[in-house]
Structures are given as structure tokens and as C-alpha cells.
């Protein structure tokens, strides 16, 4: 590589989100999502259940779907679900939104979180 190509590559790596680099395995994410599927649906016909549907969740304002009654904490959180925010929430939901009503301890495996995010990305339009 010529020096200017190395610099350009380094800049892409420095500013590109992890998801843009292909992190996560979709098939493994589909399997890992099974622990989420008892409360959340994803896909073209997804509707809220015990939790909100997660189709197009990346880039969506937290607490904003109309077919789910959110906790006051989630409804007033005011943030947008980025992959980094979802990653933190999947790891420790109560740390990200104290007082939310999701009864889930979190996922300790960064690989499993990356896989779930890869799976969720397949439902972005």
C-alpha cells in the first residue's frame, strides 16, 4: 500500500462504527435472539407483545412505538437507539434506563450481543 492509502484506511477504521465492519454473525444472532423472542418480535409483521417490536429499532427514538405501553423511564429517556446504545442496554438494561420495566439481567457475552445486533440489522429498512 502506498502511504496515502494507509492513512485513508486508518481513517475509515477510526470513524466507522463496528457494525459497518461486519461484526456479528447473523445465524448465531438468530439463535441468540430466542431469549428475546419470548417478549419481542422482529420482522415485517412484528407487533408488540410483552415488549415492543424491534423491527427498525436502530435509529428509532426509545419508547416511541405506538403499540406498546412503555415505562415512564423509557418513554422519557429521549435517546435514539444506536448500536452502541443497544449494546449497552443488552449488557445492562437497568444501567442504561434506570426504572425501565424490562425484567432481564442482561447478556454478559460481547460476541453474543454483536451477533444479536447483526441479526437485528437484517430487519432495518
List the SSEs and their pairings:
Layout: H1 3-15, H2 26-32, H3 72-75, H4 83-91, H5 93-96, H6 110-121
Helix pairs in contact: 2-6, 4-6
> Radius of gyration, rounded?
16 Å
* Tally of strands: 0
In terms of quaternary structure, what is this? single chain
Strand residue content: under 5%
Which geometry do the CA atoms define?
globular
Tell me roughly what share of residues is in helical segments: 25-40%
Mean pLDDT, as a whole number?
86
Which stretches are poorly predicted, pLDDT < 50 over at least 5 residues? 4-21
InterPro entries: Cyt_c-like_dom (IPR009056), Cyt_c-like_dom_sf (IPR036909), Cyt_c_1A/1B (IPR002327)
Keywords: Electron transport, Heme, Iron, Metal-binding, Signal, Transport
Protein name: Cytochrome c family protein
Organism: Herbaspirillum huttiense subsp. lycopersici
Description:
This protein is mainly α. The chain is built from 6 helices and no strands. The protein has helices at residues 3-15, 26-32, 72-75, 83-91, 93-96, 110-121. The model is unreliable at 4-21 (pLDDT under 50). Keywords: Electron transport, Heme, Iron, Metal-binding, Signal, Transport.
Amino acid at each position: 500500500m502506498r502511504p496515502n492509502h494507509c492513512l485513508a484506511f486508518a481513517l475509515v477504521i477510526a470513524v466507522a462504527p463496528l457494525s459497518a465492519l461486519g461484526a456479528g454473525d447473523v445465524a448465531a444472532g438468530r439463535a441468540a435472539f430466542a431469549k428475546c423472542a419470548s417478549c419481542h418480535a422482529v420482522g415485517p409483521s412484528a407487533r408488540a407483545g410483552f415488549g415492543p417490536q424491534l423491527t427498525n429499532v436502530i435509529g428509532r427514538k426509545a419508547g416511541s412505538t405506538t403499540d406498546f405501553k412503555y415505562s415512564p423511564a423509557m418513554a422519557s429517556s429521549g435517546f435514539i437507539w444506536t448500536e452502541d446504545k443497544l449494546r449497552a442496554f443488552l449488557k445492562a438494561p437497568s444501567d442504561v434506563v434506570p426504572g425501565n420495566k424490562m425484567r432481564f439481567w442482561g447478556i454478559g457475552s460481547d460476541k453474543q450481543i454483536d451477533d444479536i445486533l447483526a441479526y437485528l440489522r437484517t430487519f432495518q429498512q
